[in-house]
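Hi V.,

You were right to ask for the full record rather than a summary. Here it is.
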Amino acid sequence: MKPNSDDNDSESDEDEVIETSKISTSDAFECLAKGLMWLEQLTDSDSTELMLLKQLRDRAVKRRQSCLWQSKLPFKPM
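Predicted structure:
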């Protein structure tokens, strides 16, 4: 007789349900900045890794700043 593998699959599927929430740009920036500091402290860090992480951090900075700027003032006729 073959063991029923469906029972094992259904249990693992239930365990893998992960609820994701939207991460704010500020939170992403803080995590990238801390990750960059961590990577810079390592003695075996690669310059390519540092540049990639710096680019990601800079992208988060630009997005955070663009979210803070008001693009257009509402028009109110007189």
